[in-house]
Each structure stands twice: as C-alpha cells, then as structure tokens.
Amino acid sequence: MTARNIDGKAFAAGLRARVAAGAAEVTAQAGRKPGLAVVLVGEDPASAVYVRSKGKATVAAGMESFEHRLPADTTQETLEALVDQLNADPAVDGILVQLPLPKHLDESAIITRIDPDKDVDGFHPVNAGRLATGLEGFVPCTPLGCLMLLRDVHGDLTGLDVVVIGRSNIVGKPMAQLLIGDSCTVTVAHSRTRDLPEVVKRADIVVAAVGRAAMVKPEWIKPGATLVDVGINRTEGGLVGDVDPACAEVAGAMTPVPGGVGPMTIAVLLRNTLVSAARRQGVTLSQAI
Ligand SMILES: Nc1nc2c(c(=O)[nH]1)N[C@@H](CN(C=O)c1ccc(C(=O)N[C@@H](CCC(=O)O)C(=O)O)cc1)CN2
C-alpha cells in the first residue's frame, strides 16, 4: 500500500481564497479591512521567515498587516506596553506574538496580556478554557488546521480511535480537545507513555507533534490508518517530520512535510483574523469559513 497524500498546501490555498472573499465582505460592510498585528522579538531565522510569510499572506487576503519587529534584548515592560497598545487599537482585530520568545522574556505573561477577543493564536488561557468547555473562542491554528484536513479525508470522525503524540499547550492539548468535540476516542501519548508502539498501533488516526525527526515507525502503524505529521525538524538531510516517510507503505493517508500541516497554520491564522473582524464589526459572513 502507498498512502494517499493529504495535500495541505492545496487545502490551505482554498481556505485562503475563502478568507479573501470574507475579508472583502467585511471591508465593504464595515468600511475598513480586517487587521492583523504580528510581533517578532529577536532574530530567530525560522521565526523571521514565518512572520514574513504571515505578513504577505495577510495582505494577499485583502487584510491589513501591522508588523512589529523588536530587538532581542527587548524588556518585558516594553513588550507588554506594545501588547497594551495593540489591545487598544481599533484597527487591530488580531494580535500574534511569534514564539518562541527570547529566554529572558516571560512567554506566559505576554500571552495572558493579549485581549482574549483579539487572541487569534488561541493561546490565551481564556481561549483554552473556552475550547475545553465547548464555548466559542479562538482555537490554535495548527490543531484546527489538522482537524480541517481530517474532516476532509474522513468526513465524519465519530467513534474513531485517535492517538495524539505530544502534550504541548499549542498543539497536543488543543488537538485532543478538538477531536473529543468531534466524538473521537482520544489518547494523548507523551515521553512517559509506556509501550508507545502498542498504543499507536490501536489508532485509526495518529497526530504526531513531538518534534523528533522520523520518530514514528512503520511497524507502529495500523494498516490503513491516517497519519497527520505536525513535526518540522531541520536535519542535515533537510526538513523532516515526526513520522518516518516509510510509514507511507502502511498508512492509508498521510500528510507530507513540507506541504502538509505547515501551510494550514498560516491559512487558519487568516481565518481566525477574519472571524475576529466579523465579530467585532457585527458582520455576518455569507459563507461559513
Ligand atoms: N505565535 C505563534 N508562534 C508559532 C506558531 C504559531 O502558530 N503561533 N507556530 C509555529 C511556527 N509557524 C507559525 O508561526 C509555522 C510553522 C510552519 C509553517 C510552514 O508553512 N511550514 C512549511 C515548511 C516551511 C519551512 O521550510 O520551514 C511546511 O510545513 O510545509 C508555517 C508556520 C511556531 N511558532
């Protein structure tokens, strides 16, 4: 068997086109474009690339991009003051602080400082609580992108066994919450899980978000299972996911790296920004997004 390729890049392009149509509606009805503010602290090369891509994609979707680049030695007070300023700015519908932040900064305090109703990353504890309790809020972009791909592959996810490998606040935990919301039976595995290969072998769907190159092996996979690879590991041989590419011989469907989950992260960010702008301006979008 060779697994079907789940083309996240193509799906993301479709989502971005729907966001652009929605952004035009908001602009026409509210008299201003939806606005996204992105804050980058320091010179981490990968973060700089992601921030540039976000700015370009925001403008291409017909939205306003406000980029704030701060030096690596920025103080907590300066960064918090910028977040306060963006919270108060009526032209800003979404605020995103690119992670990771330099070590001397308190990441959690910064995230908590963002107005939850502008937190298009969905990282604020208020939005985590809303997701956990089934209330409307912002959902982190990467897990929501994974869910969109899974719904596209499977249609109804009810009753499927899913193993999420990784328990981070930005991927593993929200991913599990979303899948529970779609009536899956969810196991969250992590570095302390006993007999991980056996746990994974039970799964109809595996979401790998551990950050270890090619960790998930073909012999762990139930034949025909769907694999979603969130890993982006830079190795000497290039970009590698958390799933060994040889798993394609056993799986039924699989996201590639690159071109799978990664492009969904930015497309969902635009979607969340549009949703924020529509909510804040009282605009009802003509198509669900
Ligand atoms: N505030 C946030 N910080 C970070 C997030 C986030 O969602 N919010 N996620 C990641 C980085 N990230 C977006 O910020 C991101 C990662 C990967 C991709 C992507 O398109 N990847 C490509 C490969 C690109 C490459 O060569 O590096 C792919 O997988 O095809 C987009 C966005 C951490 N920080």
From TrEMBL:
Catalyzes the oxidation of 5,10-methylenetetrahydrofolate to 5,10-methenyltetrahydrofolate and then the hydrolysis of 5,10-methenyltetrahydrofolate to 10-formyltetrahydrofolate. One of its GO terms (molecular function) is methylenetetrahydrofolate dehydrogenase (NADP+) activity. Pathway: One-carbon metabolism; tetrahydrofolate interconversion. NADP(+) binds at G166, R167, S168, I232. Residues 140-279 form the Tetrahydrofolate dehydrogenase/cyclohydrolase NAD(P)-binding domain. The keyword Hydrolase applies. It holds the Pfam family THF_DHG_CYH. This is Bifunctional protein FolD. Residues 6-121 form the Tetrahydrofolate dehydrogenase/cyclohydrolase catalytic domain. PANTHER family: C-1-TETRAHYDROFOLATE SYNTHASE, CYTOPLASMIC, C-1-TETRAHYDROFOLATE SYNTHASE, CYTOPLASMIC-RELATED. Its EC number is 1.5.1.5, 3.5.4.9. Homodimer. Belongs to the tetrahydrofolate dehydrogenase/cyclohydrolase family. InterPro entries: Aminoacid_DH-like_N_sf, NAD(P)-bd_dom_sf, THF_DH/CycHdrlase, THF_DH/CycHdrlase_cat_dom, THF_DH/CycHdrlase_CS, THF_DH/CycHdrlase_NAD-bd_dom. It catalyses: (6R)-5,10-methylene-5,6,7,8-tetrahydrofolate + NADP(+) = (6R)-5,10-methenyltetrahydrofolate + NADPH; (6R)-5,10-methenyltetrahydrofolate + H2O = (6R)-10-formyltetrahydrofolate + H(+). GO terms for cellular component: cytosol. Keywords: Amino-acid biosynthesis, Histidine biosynthesis, Hydrolase, Methionine biosynthesis, Multifunctional enzyme, NADP, One-carbon metabolism, Oxidoreductase, Purine biosynthesis. GO terms for biological process: L-histidine biosynthetic process; methionine biosynthetic process; purine nucleotide biosynthetic process; tetrahydrofolate interconversion.
